[in-house]
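Researcher: Good morning. I'm working through a list of sequences from a screen, and I'd like to move beyond sequence-only analysis. For each chain I'm collecting a predicted structure so we can compare shapes side by side. This is the next one on the list. No need for commentary yet; just the structure.
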Amino acid sequence: MTNATHSGDAAFVEFEHVQKSYDGETLVVKDLNLAIGKGEFLTMLGPSGSGKTTCLMMLAGFETATNGDIRLGGRPINNIPPHKRGIGMVFQNYALFPHMTIAENLSFPLEVRKMGKNDRETKVKRALGMVEMEAFGGRRPAQLSGGQQQRVALARALVFEPELVLMDEPLGALDKQLREKMQFEIKHIADNLGITVVYVTHDQTEALTMSDRVAVFDDGRIQQLAPPDKLYEEPENSFVAQFIGENNTLMGTVDSINNNIAVVRLDGGELIDCKPVNVSKPGQRTRVSIRPERVEFNKSRIQAGAHTLKAEVLEFIYMGDIFRTRLRVAGNDDFIVKTRNAPDQKRLNPGQQLEIGWLPNDCRALDA
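Model: Good morning. Structure tokens for this chain:
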């Protein structure tokens, strides 16, 4: 697994052989090696209990690593208390002081840093401007909506101009539309200020939308570390393929491997060609992965060289911009095809028999 930074220069944040155990036996984080470049937006993505939040808390200083080193800007920070690390934090629950005005909430981290009144006022005004909340300085948190409170929490994390901002599920409490709007706003602010962001979420769409790179966590380890497009198009194992985006899987056994093509015999007996990703020899069990939008059932669109398999329509759902069709393919009743709503895409009826096709390059033979 790659340990390179985003920008190719020296790492700004480094985890080296970091382990964490709460009971001295079970490792929640297992031998983590991760280098994050200056100005990079890196997302730690994974299911609950995968170790991503623990990593963020060790970086913030609220948890201590059992083993290994964490460095910030080249200096070890294992023994530096949280308030001296100079890191901005944004949490899901905003953590604003209810008895203070918005301006006072923002001024607080500056007072702690013994900053003079005039400087404080200038910085508070600037931070509120960044999140388009200039008119709200005199209000209290209870007088703001959830989205406005989250903007204030973001401004407070940025007010003392940290080089590193940590965000733990910061948009979890917002509704879908506001969430999507805030994703772009946070990304734009981070880009404009050139700050380094380490972001934790279990929402894959959020991770793909916002990040320069994504570290997919499972069972205390990074399963894959890559830019969003590579993660989606080229998952390195079954976990990543299943966790990122929607994915079709067909079980089978490797028949042969030649010239970077694996011939897989599906459990239904059909033979298909795939890219061998996690398989190395004949006889190995494999889980074949194909993205729903890579499959065609319109005869005019199935390209030369594509694989074709027989399929039966089980369900056809109109979703506005796309059609989502559930098929029975090679014994799998949950095979999904997503097609664009276009004039030449016909509606299908349950029970209809048809041929579907995809290119061997879009099909990956992964671990079983």
